[in-house]
Amino acid sequence: MTAEFALNPHEPTPLYAQLYRMLRLRILDGEYAEGEAIPSETVLRDVHGITRSTVRNAVALLVKEGLVQQIRGKGTIVTYTPINHSIWNFGGFTDFSRARGQRPVTSLLSRTIEDGPEGKVLKLVRARGVAIEETRTFLNLDTSWIDLRRFPDLEKFDFEQLSLYQVMREHYGVVPTRSELTLSIVPHSDLTQQAFGPTPEVPGFICASGDVYDSTGRLVERTSVIYSPTLEMKVGMSWNGAQPRPTHAPVSA
Fold first, then answer.
1. What burial letters (b/e) apply to 92-130, b meaning 16+ CB within 10 Å?
2. Alpha-carbon distance 23 to 39, whole Å?
């Protein structure tokens, strides 16, 4: 069950986008299951004290994303089939490594403040790995973009010694809970060589890029994780029902 979610007219995010975010989160979490109708336009209008046009704009985004379909006489029906897709690092590299009894290490390659679409963002580029005695092996090249309006003064923390998600939890009360990521192949770059060393025999690197959210569906981090070619990656997938179906909706991790 998702966390309680109230629309906030004082947020810079438009009300229709907030409603879309709420409905989308509940669909992805399975609260509104495939084949079921989401609350009607009238119910959503009355519960949240908003206009019909606000509801229609939110639902239009869900339709465009392929999460719902509007069927005459039945309402707005969920068409999303959940696919559980997990790669071990998606929940946070430091937490995962410590849970396995390994000593995580981080090399901060760059830390800059940039102009984002809605304000200043902190960009962190880090090589992440594990240490065995005095030998450090870097497994990931992580790039993070974090909104400084939500995390003021985040740039002051030492992210070679501290976990980003630990800082978010302990200093800002924000707990990342969901990743929605796309896998692709990226070419060699100066950064991959800096993180992994020369790898001329490797034609490209697996990269997972996308967004991380909290339990209310608010954006926590935009991220890009490039994996070392030496990393053995385990992927698990499961489907509800006998036959898997493709979906145009983003995979949640």
1. bbbeebeeeeeebbbeebebeeeebeeeebbbbbbbbbb
2. 9
- Res. 97: pLDDT tops 90: no
Global pTM value:
0.62
168/130 Cα distance (integer angstroms): 22
Place of tokens 């009355």: 46
Bridge partners (DSSP) listed for residue 219: 213
Kindly write down the DSSP assignment for every residue of 156-223, as one continuous string: GS-TTTS-HHHHHHHHH-----EEEEEEEEE---HHHHHHH---TT---EEEEEEEEE-TTS-EEEEE
The tokens for 228 are 């070392």
Note the pLDDT of residue 83. Answer: 46
Within 10 angstroms of residue 63's Cβ, the number of other Cβ atoms is 14
Contacts 24+ apart (CB under 8 A), 26-33: 26/2, 27/62, 27/67, 27/68, 27/78, 27/80, 28/80, 28/82, 28/178, 28/249, 28/252, 29/1, 29/2, 30/82, 31/1, 31/2, 32/78, 33/78
pLDDT of residue 4: 53
Does pLDDT of 46 surpass 80? yes
| Averaged pLDDT, 15-44 | 90
